[in-house]
Design brief:
single chain, eight-stranded antiparallel beta sheet, 435 residues, 3 domains, Vanillyl-alcohol Oxidase, Chain A, domain 3, Uridine Diphospho-n-acetylenolpyruvylglucosamine Reductase, domain 2, binds flavin-adenine dinucleotide, alpha+beta, five-stranded antiparallel beta sheet, Uridine Diphospho-n-acetylenolpyruvylglucosamine Reductase, domain 3
């Protein structure tokens, strides 16, 4: 176990808008080490913050003990059972890499650098979600260190309420040291992104709405209005421009059928860049091409009842290319398909009944974080109000999600069940919860 005692010890964080000043950072290398660290924090009277990659830290961590799971990052694939045992600090990219040689794949999110456990706890919405469901639908078992330092092996049968909380309940009071997840047989998909010019935004987005009606669940699409920086790492035709990025994954693996599915999108306008084609599932991170470098941002999302033309007009009226807004991303993911079906066993996933999700990320402009950024977000909330469910998918909660997004996330009976798990596992409130 490594302990960084310095008072200004920083934990690595993806969103640089927050500065974290934990009292100390502990990096255990075993589950027993995690249990020791938790007991010691309790004796010290420290609150415990769990951090894996720092991608999901929503507020500054001040004081207390950070238990970093970074050293618990082993991944073992069992090709016969089609499962993976994954350490509590591993990233999805490691699982993609370990599973690919067997023609297997994990049901992951858009970014391979995000942590496995952090994403699973919130449900986990991925680029092939309409085909494969939520990431947490594929959770089989987790190893949990509770607030008393007890080590629990949790399955749907052994601890059904804890298992439910781990599948979409977001805040599980404890440290997950390992998970076992199911893998799916998927080596290749037809997918990627089409980038369209700003002047085609209206035509492309309205065309997307028509095309996406009655799509089979083998197809998972999304689009984003991107304002890309004028930087060398952005490909030349897109550099410094506002563009529409249409992303799609056709998961039946047949390139000819995939091309036929995507043909109507390609016909909406002439893409500036066309990166859609047969691709290994292991490269799924290329579909959304999320940024890999930390930066300061404000973000937030909301689930949508319906994806229709009026919504597109409302979105464009605030976030369209001709608007001067300090936002890098305004993204809409189509839900439905396997994401709408109940899963086997207990779970707490938020979003099964939504048609789509809107998510926005500001420009990395901290000087606007108390002025233009929240003002534009507020204007957007007003413009799309008729289509919003008012509920935020827990993995997409951010500073722009409004007050108490967690309260709105779950129906009262599920929230009560989650509270009961917290009261049972952590009666003294040792664990700080998502920050
Ligand atoms: C670039 C980017 C892309 C994203 N794409 C998607 C996406 O496609 N789909 C989606 O659903 N979400 C997505 N997310 C959101 C992401 O799932 C959440 O932010 C998630 O919480 C990140 O988990 P982490 O472990 O990487 O981050 P961390 O900041 O390390 O952890 C976040 C929280 O998860 C909990 N946690 C993490 N590990 C453990 C553990 N071992 N034991 C107990 N608790 C733990 C803690 O409460 C912690 O505060 C994305 C986020 C980013 C930054």
């Amino acid at each position: 176990m490594t302990i960084d005692q310095s008072s200004d010890a920083r934990i690595a964080a993806f969103n640089l808008a927050h500065q974290h000043r934990p009292g100390r950072v502990v990096t255990p290398t075993t589950a027993a080490g995690v249990a020791d660290a938790v007991r010691e924090a309790a004796v010290r009277g420290d609150r415990v913050h769990v951090v894996a990659t720092g991608h999901g830290l929503l507020a500054p961590v001040e004081g207390g003990t950070v238990v970093s799971t970074a050293a618990l990052a082993d991944v073992h694939v069992d090709p016969e059972a089609r499962t993976a045992r994954v350490g509590g600090g591993a990233r999805w990219g490691q699982v993609l890499e370990a599973a690919a040689p067997y023609g297997l794949a994990p049901v992951c999110g858009s970014s391979p650098t995000v942590g496995v456990v952090g994403l699973l706890l919130g449900g986990g919405l991925g680029p092939a979600g309409r085909t494969l469901g939520w990431a947490s639908d594929h959770l089989r078992r987790l190893e949990l260190v509770t607030a008393t330092g007890e080590q629990l092996s949790v399955t749907a049968d052994s601890h059904p309420e804890v298992f439910r909380a781990a599948r979409g309940g977001k805040h599980l009071p404890g440290v997950v040291t390992e998970v076992e997840i199911g893998l799916v047989p998927m080596a290749e998909v037809y997918g990627g992104g089409l980038f369209f010019a700003a002047e085609d935004a209206g035509r492309v987005l309205h065309g997307f709405v028509d095309w996406s009606r009655d799509l089979p669940e083998t197809v998972t699409p999304s689009f984003a209005i991107l304002r890309l920086p004028d930087l060398p790492q952005v490909p030349e035709p897109l550099r410094g421009r506002c563009v529409v990025h249409v992303r799609v994954v056709v998961a039946d693996g047949d390139a000819e059928a995939g091309a036929a599915t995507v043909a109507p999108l390609r016909a909406l306008a002439t893409p500036l860049v066309d990166l859609v084609g047969p691709m290994p599932y292991a490269a799924i991170g290329a579909v959304h091409a999320d940024p890999e470098e930390p930066m300061p941002v404000m973000d937030g999302g909301v689930l949508l009842r319906d994806l229709e033309h009026g919504f597109v007009d409302a979105l464009l009226s605030v976030m369209g290319p001709e608007q001067h807004v300090p936002f890098a991303v305004a993204e809409v993911r189509l839900l439905g398909g396997a994401l709408a079906r109940p899963t086997a066993g207990p779970d707490a996933v938020v979003g099964r009944d939504a048609a789509a999700q809107l998510f926005v990320v500001s420009a990395p402009a901290p000087d606007l974080f108390t002025t233009a950024v929240p003002a534009v977000a507020q204007a957007l909330v007003g413009a799309v109000g008729a289509w919003s469910t008012g509920v935020v998918q827990p993995n997409f909660v951010g500073a722009l999600s409004g007050p108490n997004p967690w309260v709105r996330a779950w129906p009262a009976d599920v929230r009560d069940a989650l509270d009961a798990v917290r009261a049972e596992l952590d009666p003294a409130g040792l664990f700080a919860g998502p920050r």
